[in-house]
């Protein structure tokens, strides 16, 4: 009897969790064509504060950033990260964006600017010191650089950060908790 009740409680708990968090990651929800001024998916954003076992995966070669709840994919974003360059030591091409496992930090804001690169971006969240999730890049005048924005989801082009659409970056800045695991893969 105890096992039966425990099983029922686990079932109810999983129903409550899945009914309160919209798990909808599905290729049919991806916005096409890609539009850097709109969300990557055509459905509502999940409330990241309520997602159990939240973590983020960045695929550099596929130009995608994925939001997971444990092993379940719940949202996919078009992204563009660091350009691939030939490593003089190995002769292999690798991204200027570091791969590995990191965690988001409290460092976040509405605009950041790098005077050395003469590039800025809106809605940022730090995940590895100077590496950020942020919008497609802007110039010093806060204007989006449309030639770079058109590469979103298609071609690595950033100096190292992970660029997202404007709404996706704003969603992460305001909703992604500090300490969230971030896994960056080639």
Characterise the protein shown here.
With 186 residues, the protein is an alpha+beta fold. The protein has a single domain (23-185), classed as Beta Barrel (L,D-transpeptidase catalytic domain-like), CATH 2.40.440. It has helices spanning 2-20, 146-149, 166-175; strands at 54-59, 64-69, 72-80, 84-86, 93-95, 100-103, 108-114, 119-128, 131-135, 162-164, 181-185. The longest helix has 19 residues, at 2-20. It is globular and about 40 Å long.
How do the strands and helices of this protein lay out in sequence?
Blueprint: H1 2-20, E1 54-59, E2 64-69, E3 72-80, E4 84-86, E5 93-95, E6 100-103, E7 108-114, E8 119-128, E9 131-135, H2 146-149, E10 162-164, H3 166-175, E11 181-185
Parallel strand pairs: 1-11, 9-10
Antiparallel strand pairs: 1-2, 2-3, 3-10, 4-5, 6-11, 7-8, 8-9
In short:
With 186 residues, the chain is of the alpha+beta class. The chain has helices at residues 2-20, 146-149, 166-175, and strands at residues 54-59, 64-69, 72-80, 84-86, 93-95, 100-103, 108-114, 119-128, 131-135, 162-164, 181-185.
List keywords for this structure.
alpha+beta, 9-stranded mixed sheet, two-stranded antiparallel ribbon, 33% strand
């Amino acid at each position: 009897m105890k096992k039966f009740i425990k099983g029922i409680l686990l079932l109810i708990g999983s129903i409550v969790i899945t009914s309160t968090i919209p798990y909808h990651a599905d290729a049919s929800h991806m916005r096409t064509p890609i539009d850097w001024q709109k969300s990557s998916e055509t459905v509502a954003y999940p409330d990241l504060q309520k997602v159990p076992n939240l973590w983020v995966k960045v695929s550099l070669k596929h130009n995608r950033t994925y939001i997971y709840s444990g092993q379940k994919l719940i949202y996919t974003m078009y992204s563009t990260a660091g350009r691939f360059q030939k490593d003089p030591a190995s002769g292999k091409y690798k991204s200027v964006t570091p791969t590995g496992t990191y965690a988001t930090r409290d460092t976040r804001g509405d605009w950041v600017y790098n005077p050395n690169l003469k590039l800025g971006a809106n809605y940022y969240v730090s995940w590895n010191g100077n590496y950020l999730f942020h919008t497609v890049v802007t110039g010093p005048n806060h204007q989006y650089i449309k030639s770079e924005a058109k590469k979103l989801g298609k071609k690595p082009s950033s100096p190292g950060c992970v660029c997202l659409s404007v709404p996706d970056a704003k969603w992460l800045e305001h909703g992604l908790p500090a300490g969230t695991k971030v896994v960056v893969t080639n």
